[in-house]
Write a structure and sequence with these properties.
The two termini are about 45 Å apart. This protein has about 475 residues and is an alpha/beta fold. The protein is built from 16 helices and 19 strands. The longest helix has 22 residues. It has an eleven-stranded mixed beta sheet. The protein folds into two domains: about 260 residues, 3-Layer(aba) Sandwich (Rossmann fold); about 110 residues, GMP Synthetase, Chain A, domain 3 (2-Layer Sandwich). α12 packs across α13. The C terminus is likely disordered. Bound molecules: zinc ion. The site of zinc ion has 7 residues, from loops.
Amino acid sequence: MVEHKNSRAVRRARDRGPFFGRLLLDLTCRLRRFDTLQVLEKIEEAPFLSPEQVRENQFKKLSALLGHAEAHVPYYRALFRSLGIRSQDIRNMDDFAKLPILTKDIIREKQTELVREDVPLATLKPHFSGGSTGVPLKFYRSRGYMVASDAGSYRNLEQCGWRPGEMIAFFWGGNDKLYAMSRWEFEVRQFIRRTYQFDPFHSGEAEMAGWAERFRKIRPRVILGYASTIARFAAFLDSRGQSLDGIKGAFTTAEKLYRPQREVIERAFGCKAFDCYGSSEVQNIAAECAEGRMHVNADYVVVEEDQATGDGPRPFLLTSLWNWSMPFIRYRNEDCGYLSPESCSCGNHFPLMRLEIARTSDNFLFPGGRVVHGEFFTHLMYGGDGIANFQFHQTALDEIILSIVPGPGNTEERQKKIRDAIRQIQSICPGQAVRVEVREVDMIPLSSAGKHRFTRSDVPSGSASTTVAEMSS
Ligand SMILES: [Zn+2]
């Protein structure tokens, strides 16, 4: 095998990982019984194989997934039977492209028939997603999938020279478990896991001043997380003439990264911003390389364009190669873009793509200055029975309109979910009244870009908010 210079660079980087940090990360993985670093080692070279090998390996994984789905997933067993074919009849990508598309409606309708039946359901973890065009989805993932996802993220980070064991500043929504920890427990946990979490659900100016101080103490080498929060933090530093040293790369995900956001991130952190594309249903879809081009992680996901649609960016069809718990095969997630036949000079032979339309989330500013990332609100509705769709619309500093499209299911459950959501919103800023008006509607209008937005705010949340960035991009 011809060894490419980048592959050697990756190996060198790994060999020189920081001794103490690496030791801690190793230990944490062992304690959690996560073989993330072993998986990372196995996948590190994959992007640097020849284009033919990349395609061949991808198809091998795809065939294995199809065989598994036919054998162990009721929905796919019935599907192959109805088509009068066996999974092994699919011998190339053209054959594969003839399989029917998996839509969100099918997932909602078939739900349990899409889950593998050869392992107990209790061993799988349920998850929820808003997706990008509305209507929450429930799906399952296994522990192995989570490990592979982490390893895939680590491989993305290695592109900027990050080495396992170096501290990651992670901007991601908190959860009850995290909030319940004592300060001491939180700090120790973040330190040994080598991932320090900053909470976009508490991201006002006072918190961001605290983040800057934290950064100087924990000295992260990379930044990873919500594009809008990282950009707001960068703008906060920038407006004060501050910058932070020693950061090798900023990796944004979960939201589209707009040009002004990229600029302020690169300025404040003095490093390149890498736009990554993933979703909760299908993680690790693609990541930008050092040349600024987006490569599909071909060993994780098969990305196709939906050929049935007209001109302009086409909806993607995604097949997750690692999720055997609830296989998503030719899943249309309603993000749009292009696949490119070109190759990139960076040495990575994974195929290139361009993302045109993807999810955006607003940040909400409340009385007293607390800023809450839109994902906070989306989470309030996950798992709600009887809710077909929803939107949180902040119309004033102290007012939110919650629009609900009722769906089939339990009305009691729906009312309870709404009451809980209102309670949680009102606890955002204790002592200050925030009105929540609930409206039951038949439909929620799409944005001018034709996308459903779970959250929107008319209140500017400070410099480089998503709204500002969107207008100027
Ligand atoms: Zn590249």
